[in-house]
Amino acid sequence: KKKDDKKKDDKKKDDKKGNGKYHVLLTANDAVYVRWQSRIMYHQYKKIAADPTLAGAMGGFTRILHSGKPDDLMDEIPTVVVDPLPEGIKDHGYVVLHRPYAFKQWLDTYAADVEEEYVLMTEPDHLYLRGMPLFATPSRAAAFPFFYIDPKKPEFTPIVQKYNEVKAPIDAFAPIGNSPVMISVESLSRVVPKWHDLAVAMKQDPVADKAFGWVIEMWAYSIASAQVGVTYELHPEMMLQPPWDDSFQVKGKEAYIIHYTYGQDFAKSGVATPGKIGEWHFDKRDFTGIPPKEKIPMPPKDAHEVIQKMMTIINEGITELPHWP
Predict the structure, then answer these.
(1) Which residue, among 124, 2, 39, has the nearest Cα to 319 in the 3D structure?
(2) How far apart are CA 211 and CA 292, in angstroms?
(3) Cross-strand bridge partners of residue 65
(4) Residue 242: closest CA among 230, 256, 258, 254
(5) Theoretical Cys-Cys bridge with 179: which of 11, 117, 121, 130, CB 3.0 to 4.6 Å?
(6) For 296-311, what is each residue's pLDDT tens digit?
């Protein structure tokens, strides 16, 4: 009888699981700059998740707000509140250092309430074109590769090896950050404590801080993963990064996210002019202290399809969201 009861309990647990879906996790603080991007990002997520032809394996959504107190977006975006870094740990103005600690608290306090077995770690400046399928498996995570996370580069290898306590082979260090990453909750729970410790330690290390700069937390995630034996399948099609990506396909595969981290500059002819302020210009950093108040002028008509779609999604958020800005 006990065996039968156990089978029933296991069946109940299986029924509660996410049925092949992943939970979208967004870490954010309450800065104006992050808030307006988060609102547009979640607005677009809702549209994609509601469309069965586009949703893929998308499940639920949680914003992990690491400011330590609720804000006025709690009713608009599903949110849990966690603490910023403890007072004894200085972030030196590097806000991203709070991210591993935010995930650590989510795992400790909230992960058990989520039905999905997998999560997709994402950021406020990610715009969904469509939902990814379930790329991750229990034994292997999935991630977007970044060209600048290269542990084999001679200037980086010694720093990587300094923090390589388990003496993992150099090929074990994936060229990734923590986002976009799709990973099982179980694997994430192994990576996060090490990621947090490494990010804090490396930020205090002048050599590592100088070498890795604004992406030091990404390096910490890659190194932490190698320390705990979590491996990744690389998916370049996970994300487009305009202006460099000018088509919806990456190596013949349809892309899933537009990441608008770079400034966008285009001539009237529609040609991108990166590094030179264009006749048409958009940069999210222009709206650091105040959100865009109204629709942003669209790019020149001959500018590529990715920038057209990116600005369409952003403008839909601005015009469709209530109480904007």
Answers:
(1) 39
(2) 34
(3) 28, 81
(4) 258
(5) 121
(6) 999 999 999 999 999 9
What's the mean pLDDT when you consider all of the chain?
94
The per-residue pLDDT for 309 is: 98
C-alpha distances out from residue 220 to 30, 77, 98, 206, 216, Å: 24, 29, 13, 15, 6
Q: What pTM did the predictor assign? A: 0.93
**Backbone dihedral region of 297: left (phi > 0), alpha (psi from -120 to 50 degrees) or beta?**
beta
Cβ within 8 Å of residue 147, ≥6 positions away = 175
Q: How far apart are CA 229 and CA 187, in angstroms?
A: 9
Q: Is the CB of residue 162 less than 8 Å from the CB of residue 106?
A: no
Which three-class secondary structure string do you get for 261-295?
Answer: CCCEEECCCCCECCCCCCCEEECHHHHCCCCCCCC
Task: Work out whether strand 79-81 and strand 118-122 pair parallel, antiparallel, or are unpaired.
Answer: unpaired
Q: How many residues does the chain have?
A: 325
Separation of alpha carbons 285 and 215, rounded Å: 17
Contact 147, 175 (CB under 8 A): yes
Residue ranges in the chain modelled with pLDDT below 70: 1-18
Q: At 244, which helix (H) or strand (E)?
A: none
Radius of gyration of the chain from Cα atoms?
20
Helix-strand-coil split of the chain, %, nearest 5: 40, 15, 45
CA torsion angle 253 258 262 266 (round to 10): 80
